[in-house]
Design goal:
By secondary structure, the chain is an alpha/beta fold. Helix content is about 40%, strand content about 15%. The chain is built from 10 helices and 8 strands. Helix 5 packs across helix 6.
Length: about 250
């Protein structure tokens, strides 16, 4: 399942058709519908929205859970978009499975080997993100759990690793892209949002990803970023995305 999706990412350079946009979190039906409508109007195909949010503190917004997943599914059906969302446990996998086109495994679960073994048996494409402080060797070691049962429909994602500087949220390890491409025959995209943590750096990071030959980009976009319940500082709105797209794809 999803071989067309993997081909979308693997066989093309970095372009609009392998750009995953959408909000950090699904906050309400109205918010995610507005976001989906705008993403579609701009010609994007893959749409993200977090429902099970791995927040640093339990006091922060945790996401809408299964309700959010069903909202995402509904709006993706309405606008013919492919739904991408993270799950963090086997229980969440079971309840969200039918609603998603791509199942995301976030940085914090990169080494959740028991979960990876379960995922190695499922049919759907997995977006498998690099861990917060994982070396490339550790990342590819974890990948081997996901591939255990011959699973091939996997998209990798460089999302920055913890560094010593605090100017950006994480350090975007752009060289990981060609290094991993040399080692495995899987697409690797760049998450320019969680790596930089800054909306003013999304365009330069995306240009770098494109120039180095990444197989796609992920970017968080929100109808009203300053009101976002999570990751407000790194999200842009859809007008800004339109402008960014012009500079990225048309130049
Ligand atoms: C996300 O993409 O929603 C996310 C939480 O990213 P990461 O797992 O890379 O921190
Ligand atoms: Mn986020």
């Amino acid at each position: 399942m999803g071989n067309d999706i993997i081909a979308d990412f693997l066989n093309k350079g970095c372009q609009k058709s392998n750009f995953i946009v959408g909000s950090c979190a699904i906050e309400s039906y109205q918010q995610i519908r507005q976001a989906a409508a705008s993403a579609k109007a701009l010609g994007y195909k893959y749409f993200r929205g977090g429902a099970y949010k791995p927040r640093t503190s339990s006091n922060s917004f945790q996401g809408l859970g299964l309700t959010g997943v069903t909202y995402l599914h509904e709006v993706c059906q309405e606008f013919s978009l492919k739904a991408v969302s993270e799950i963090m446990s086997e229980r969440q996998l079971e309840e969200a499975y039918d609603y998603l086109d791509i199942i995301q495994i976030g940085a914090r679960n990169m080494q959740n080997f028991e979960l990876l073994k379960v995922l190695s048996k499922i049919d759907k494409p997995i977006l498998f993100k690099r861990g917060l402080m994982a070396t490339i060797e550790e990342y590819l070691g974890a990948l081997s759990y996901l591939q255990e049962n011959g699973k091939k429909n996997i998209i990798l994602c460089e999302r920055g690793v913890r560094g010593y500087d605090v100017e950006t949220r994480n350090m975007l390890d752009i060289m990981a892209v060609p290094i991993i491409q040399q080692k495995v025959k899987l697409p690797i995209i760049v998450d320019v949002s969680h790596s930089t943590g800054r909306r003013d750096l999304l365009l330069p990071a995306a240009k770098a990803a494109k120039a180095i030959g990444a197989n796609g980009i992920m970017m968080e976009v929100h109808p009203t970023p300053d009101l976002a319940l999570s990751d407000a500082a790194q999200q842009i709105d859809y007008q800004q995305l339109e402008q960014l797209g012009k500079e990225l794809w048309e130049s």
